[in-house]
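Renewal narrative, Specific Aim 1. Our central claim is that a sequence can be written position by position from structural information alone. The example that follows is taken directly from our test logs and has not been curated for this report. It begins with the structure tokens describing the chain, in the order in which they were read.
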């Protein structure tokens, strides 16, 4: 089973299926896209199928740089970011919720940065993800 609720490689998810899968979290999906558009201009959104184990996800890009990935799940979605050292230090010194700071502190480091994956279920999560994304500017 794929991480994403959408695992049919032959076609990206239609908007109606996305809204049905996300349920009440579709508002948070839309709000995250809107808040990122305020911070990063121009911003583009493109669906991509990474692998059978991941399924379909949305790449959120500022020019050619991927800001984050949004992976739809049943009733919520995942936001995944790669954070550099400056962004990690700023995040750990910020007022982000303790649960987010623990995730950051225990996340695996890769050559492109520390991989952080957060479940987005409410407006507080949207604010946290937006803040982390803006720290990527550092």
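The sequence written for that structure reads:
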């Amino acid at each position: 089973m794929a991480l994403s609720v959408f695992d049919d490689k032959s076609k990206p998810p239609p908007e109606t299926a996305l809204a049905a899968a996300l349920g009440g979290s579709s508002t948070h999906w839309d709000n995250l896209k809107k808040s990122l558009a305020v911070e990063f201009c121009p911003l583009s959104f493109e669906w991509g199928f990474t692998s059978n184990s991941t399924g379909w996800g949305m790449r959120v890009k500022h020019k050619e740089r991927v800001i984050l990935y949004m992976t739809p799940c049943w009733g919520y979605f995942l936001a995944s970011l790669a954070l550099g050292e400056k962004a990690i230090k700023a995040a750990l010194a910020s007022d982000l919720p303790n649960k987010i700071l623990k995730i950051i502190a225990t996340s695996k480091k890769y050559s492109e940065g520390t991989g952080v994956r957060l479940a987005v279920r409410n407006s507080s999560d949207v604010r946290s993800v937006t803040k982390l994304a803006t720290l990527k500017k550092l």
